[in-house]
Write a structure and sequence with these properties.
By secondary structure, the protein is of the alpha+beta class. Helices cover 26% and strands 38% of the residues. The protein has a single domain, classed as Jelly Rolls, CATH 2.60.120.460. The protein has a five-stranded antiparallel beta sheet, with helices on one face. A hairpin with a 2-residue loop joins strand 5 and strand 6. It binds zinc ion.
Length: 136
């Protein structure tokens, strides 16, 4: 049984941005010679989130538009009195901080169109994605 805890860094460039981190995660799996197990990808931030979805330009714009519609960045939120990013915290709650990814034969067992996406909601910032693996 192998247990591994590590993290990768992701630099975002915009206030809202979706970054495909699948390649970084695959490289990490290969580097650590992981075979079959469970990977928890977790971002320890309150204004960024993780999703498994399609990396398609129009869809990524739709996801950002959808989250903005739901969380109203220009809204009259109480948190904006101390830190003007209430919408980012609210979108984090909707999307979530973590994803569990099965690893099979050394590869993430993702669906054809699934990619691991970091959703920046209050960038630009340097983000951390923790990777915690249990398996062989
Ligand atoms: Zn805040």
């Amino acid at each position: 049984m192998k247990f591994l805890e590590d993290s990768i860094k992701v630099s975002t460039k915009s206030t809202f941005e979706i970054v495909d981190i699948t390649g970084q995660v695959e490289t990490w799996i290969e580097t650590n010679k992981l075979k079959n197990g469970i990977l928890l990808a977790y971002t320890p931030h309150t204004t960024a989130a993780l999703a498994l979805n399609e990396n398609e330009k129009g869809l990524k714009e739709d996801i950002i538009s959808f989250l903005k519609e739901l969380t109203k960045p220009e809204g009259n939120w109480k948190h904006n009195l101390i830190d003007v990013n209430a919408h980012a915290h609210l979108a984090n709650i909707i999307v979530g901080n973590d994803r569990i990814i099965p690893i099979v034969k050394g590869r993430p067992a993702l669906g054809t169109w699934q990619r691991i996406l970091l959703i920046e909601l209050d960038g630009p910032r340097e983000r951390t994605v923790k990777l915690i693996y249990i398996g062989e």
